[in-house]
Specification:
GO terms for molecular function: transmembrane transporter activity. This protein is mostly helical. The protein is built from 21 helices and no strands.
Length: 444
């Protein structure tokens, strides 16, 4: 049996198993808040769900490729984004306990009004919309060349199968399957690393000495990731939805553990790229390493991509449904919630059949949401409503300056790839914070 046929078997069989094992949501609390027998997810379940919902197919592909380009520094740089969990865990804990807010939307409406909540909802709706096609395209690429019939069929079938169990249980299904997917990810990653370190002349010292700790060889990205971690998590409902379903203490503990363990998973996966660099490979690191070890390891790598993409996709469907039904106050019913999932699955898949440049134009980048930093970090500070709009709009402007490469090079003080990303974020976040605070200074 060919590799492609094995992959089809893995996709279909794993999805069917998840469908039959997933709990059937019979109440809106089960569907939107993941309660099971009136109990919220515990620390272990929530931590596993957080990690695997962020270790999506696109991110581990990037982690491996950064390992190939920059060695261990590349993996550590990308792992910097996992500071987001710690930041969100601490801030949202305080928002719940000290502020008595029940959701991010509750906080935004109370402090900045409905217009602010509408703008925020548009940002996260775009984010969720992007999550659908960006992950399914990675899956499609493992079945055929971009634009081939195999590529499109894989995307359509994978999306449908994931949707089927997401519709069955909502967020309950998502968290339940996340735990299974996290265990699978751990086992499969161990198999890959075992094979890599079994190769003669490749050991831990090769990994530790594989990169140069300089700005132009990875540290630009590392510091940009750290800076973005103070805004990035708040525009990701897949992450923030999980901050309001368990008790505040369980939530904070889960987020802090997810920050450490998630970063570790990314660094370990980047070793695939480090190995590829040592072997002189080029192209997609994970694919090349899979081919080097043969069919079995290639299938293991592909299965990691499948499980990680599925975990992100079912979480995306759940979050979009919750956004419309609970956060924006649409019809609160299971039927409507499930209908929203089906709609976003269809609409989120359509861009796959469009031009790649159109996809890039619809992406909300991490830089575009840096304006959320003072909104959440200084959540307790009394500021006029105008502060929200000044900060958020400024962040979007800096995001566009980066996208269209219009940022003045005289304000970039390091060299190499990602230098523009780092300095646009440094100047951008500084501007956002100042503009956020100015209205309160004038008020005084």
């Amino acid at each position: 049996m060919s590799v492609i046929n094995w992959q089809w078997l893995l996709v279909i069989s794993s999805s069917l198993i998840f469908f039959f094992l997933s709990p059937l949501a019979k109440t809106t609390d089960e569907f939107f808040k993941a309660t099971h027998k009136n109990k919220a997810p515990n620390t272990l379940m929530l931590t596993g769900s957080l990690i695997i919902s962020w270790i999506f197919a696109k991110s581990i592909t990037i982690a491996a490729n950064l390992g190939l380009s920059y060695g261990l520094v590349g993996g550590v740089a990308y792992a910097g984004y996992y500071l987001s969990f710690a930041v969100a865990g601490v801030v949202l804990y305080k928002i719940r306990v000290n502020g008595k807010y029940e959701s991010i939307h509750h906080f935004l409406i109370s402090k900045f009004g409905k217009s602010a909540m509408t703008i925020f909802s548009l940002l996260i709706a775009f984010r969720l919309f992007n999550e659908v096609w960006s992950n399914t395209m990675v899956i499609g690429s493992y079945f055929g060349e971009t634009g081939s019939s195999n590529y499109y069929w894989a995307i359509v079938v994978f999306t449908f199968l994931t949707l089927s169990y997401a519709v069955k249980g909502g967020l309950s299904s998502s968290i339940f399957t996340d735990v299974i997917q996290m265990v699978l990810f751990g086992i499969l990653l161990c198999i890959i690393l075992w094979n890599i370190f079994s190769v003669e002349d490749f050991n831990v010292s090769n990994v530790l000495q594989s990169g140069t700790w300089s700005f132009d060889l990875g540290l630009n990205l590392f510091f940009a990731a750290i800076i973005q971690s103070f805004s990035y998590p708040f525009h990701d409902p897949v992450l923030t939805d999980r901050a309001f379903i368990s008790s505040p203490k369980v939530t904070r503990k889960s987020f802090l553990w997810a920050s450490v363990l998630g970063a570790l998973c990314i660094i370990l996966f980047s070793i695939i790229g480090v190995f590829a660099k040592e072997q002189g490979f080029s192209g997609q690191a994970a694919v090349q390493v899979g081919k080097f070890f043969g069919v079995l390891v290639l299938l293991v790598i592909n299965f990691i991509m499948i499980t990680s993409a599925a975990s992100t996709l079912d979480s995306t469907f759940s979050s979009f449904s919750k956004l419309l039904v609970l956060d924006l106050g649409a019809k609160n019913s299971l039927t409507f919630g499930r209908a929203v999932m089906i709609a976003v699955a269809i609409l989120g898949t359509l861009p796959v059949f469009l031009d790649a440049e159109i996809l890039s134009a619809t992406t909300i980048s991490g830089t575009m949401v840096i304006g959320l930093t003072p909104v959440f970090i200084f959540w307790k500070k009394d500021v006029p409503k105008m502060s929200f709009f000044l900060s958020v709009i400024t962040g979007v402007i800096f995001g566009f300056l980066l996208v269209f490469k219009s940022f003045p090079t005289s304000l970039i003080f390091t060299t190499g790839k990602y230098a523009d990303l780092l300095w646009v974020n440094i100047w951008g976040i500084s501007s956002c914070i100042i503009l956020y605070l100015i209205p309160s200074w004038i008020k005084k």
